[in-house]
Amino acid sequence: MTLLAKKTVQSEKQWAEIFSALVSELQLSGNQVSVVLGRDFYQTFDIEKPKVDESELLTTLPFSIKDLISESIFDQVVDYIDVPFQPRKGEQVTAICLPRTRVLMIRDMILAAGCHLQSITIEEVALTHLLGVHEEANILLSQQQNELVLTVVKQGQLYFTHRLRGFNELLPLPLEQVEDALVDGLSLEIQRALDYISSQLRVNTIGALYLAVVCPDIKLLSEKLGVYLARNVLPYAEDEGYDFLSLIAYGALMGEEQ
């Protein structure tokens, strides 16, 4: 069973109050909680992987990005995800950085509400769970605020992410009114991404492209993109609707014991 509850907040200072109210209202005290942070609440940097033992990597990583951020590295929490190997770039990682005070605030608000903190993750990582673990690469085109995000996942690993602007205002309109701009534009951007992951990441086998967007003609849009791209294009979780918040929340919790 999937439960979706929403509350609007004006600032980060309201998180604890709103979260506590939701836990009380929905009788969720005692549950495990996974937190997915939106893109505005952390920074990421693609950097060369420090040449140290794996056991020392987390200790070394903050000093590899200290010149890339304006805040003191000692006030930040830094983690990383591996980046698929590219011969021209060598071994790389994506460093993830967020204020230590934000991490502690999240921990404290969950404990204060009588819940248990399972994990804190970010959008990019949560999205990988939506596509599962498969030998071939799968692609998710999801709608977020004023942009679309194209995510490529293979064997459960994030291979590539790319943000597209200029399409969200077209998606709610009848496809017959915006077909040239929407279908042609999306096809071009997606094909560029496919060319990149083929040439640079050596990803040539694509399972499916899933659309998680709000569009009145989602089936027709999927069919037309499929024809243009000669790929299998499908609406994602059509029966569940296309609320991106619920998709992200579901992705973060998939595979965890409740």
TrEMBL record:
Top-level lineage group: Bacteria
Protein name: MSHA biogenesis protein MshI
